[in-house]
């Protein structure tokens, strides 16, 4: 379908949809015909949609439920059938996340929807998407940009992980907080 029709069905301005397409952030595959018309592939390939939500700590459990709800609303607004869901409490650096692995291994899940790229990988999200596209599958992130809070939490997790491996687990979280506070104060001292 044409981009203008897709935008109208979603209740967004055509210019916004065009800007998303131009920046490569349109949540559905699209291509431009030689005539200049932008055509949107709004229907996932045969199979269904999988939803993936993740938070880093048990303290954020309420965020996990809200995150999953936003994904469900998005899938419903697109008219897609959700066949699998996974939500988990795990660090982004944990490479044995059962929920994510379950969605990636399920060949019936043709599209995986996440809230932000950092819910799946700390970096290299586009490589995962490219690998899935080679199989006729895809992964969609609703928000492409990281918030400063998410970046700070990710940095803290990475510092904590490295600190625990090098200096031992005891006190790793406190060392990470100390390093971040030192980094926040440093620009002010210049």
Structure description:
This protein is 48% helix and 17% strand. It has helices spanning 3-10, 14-22, 61-78, 98-105, 125-134, 148-167, 172-189, and strands at residues 30-32, 38-40, 48-55, 82-89, 109-114, 138-141. A 4-stranded parallel beta sheet has the order 4-3-5-6, sandwiched between helices. Helix 3 links the parallel strand 3 and strand 4.
Tell me briefly what this model is.
Residues 49-178 form the Resolvase/invertase-type recombinase catalytic domain. With 190 residues, the chain is an alpha/beta fold. The protein contains seven helices and six strands, in the order H-H-E-E-E-H-E-H-E-H-E-H-H.
In helices, the fraction of residues equals: 40-55%
CATH superfamily of the largest domain: Resolvase, N-terminal catalytic domain
On the 0-100 scale, what is the average pLDDT? 81
What are the segments in which pLDDT stays under 50 over at least 5 consecutive residues? none
Strand order of the largest sheet: 4-3-5-6
Q: Do you know the CATH topology of the largest domain?
A: Rossmann fold
Oligomer: single chain
Number of strands: 6
Give the termini distance in whole angstroms: 54 Å
CATH class of the largest domain: Alpha Beta
Order of helices and strands: HHEEEHEHEHEHH
| Share of residues in strands | 15-25%
Q: Using the 3D structure, state the CATH architecture of the largest domain.
A: 3-Layer(aba) Sandwich
Organism: Mesosutterella porci
Pfam families: Resolvase
Protein name: Recombinase family protein
Domain Resolvase/invertase-type recombinase catalytic: 49-178
